Amino acid sequence: MKQYLDLCKHVLETGSQKGDRTGTGTLSVFGYQMRYDLQKGFPLMTTKKTAFRLIVSELLWFLKGDTNVRTLVEEKNPIWDEWAFEKWVNSEEYTGPDMTDFGRRAPLDEEFRSKYEVEMAHFKKRLLDDSSFAETYGDLGPVYGKQWRSWHTGSAQSEKQPIDQIAQLIEGLKNNPDSRRHIVTAWNPSEIEDMALPPCHALFQFYVADGKLSCQLYQRSADIFIGVPFNIASYALLVHLIALETGLIPGEFIHTLGDAHIYSNHINQVNEQLTREPRPLPTLRINAEGKSIFDLTTQDIVLENYDPHPKIKAPIAV
Questions:
Q1: Which residues does the UniProt record annotate as the domain Thymidylate synthase/dCMP hydroxymethylase (predicted)?
Q2: Domain total of the chain
Q3: Per residue in 168-198, pLDDT tens?
């Protein structure tokens, strides 16, 4: 994962100090690209343990067109918990302790963190136990799954049928592999304001040459320490899945970043990671016999020979 470590060094050495939506502050650069040859191993971070199961369940959630965090809670996947929780604690129905700015307060204040953990546990239990509550407070709006599988242009075009971009992508790759239009976009201006979080990985394009399938992602906003390792592995997995569905061989994943940033409260963790030597990449095995990629479960996708350095904890900026 030398490419990723080089990115970390580049931002630490050349990044500009910038404010951000969360109020945390960042070191940031604009415009950066990394390339991963998927024939040389699966690009999951080895300089810190990264939860592959969470990456798998999130990607399958996207591919099924789901936008409700309840599905992820059932899978014990906390990736989107904070955004759904924020919707709940900001609502008029919430009557518990003040959770304002919980993302920054929880790591710094032990007493507050205890309250936050209790409220989050109650929230997740209610999502699982109460379908009506989950429908209201578990739904994240028209985030990735909705845009990938049911793109809609908004009320002005309400008569038009939604577009299943993933189905169109697969059909195009099978029937016209040399096309330059194998594009899926999650950036839908007509629905941005309705999303819990506007898409960070905004647009991707597939490319076929010599029987190999490659993908380039444009990511408008890249949280280098927490988000980017997940994004690399998620899109590498997506290439493997789409290749499987179209009878192609995985080629490259090209990761193009817009605002690439390290949050100010992640700098110590990044420096710790840079002291670690990368280890051999793991390999991927997909048990898909007789199944479409849309029918796969987390148990069907297996990582082998993963031997990372220990996990490094860091707060998420919400």
A1: 2-318
A2: 2
A3: 999 999 999 999 999 999 999 999 999 999 9
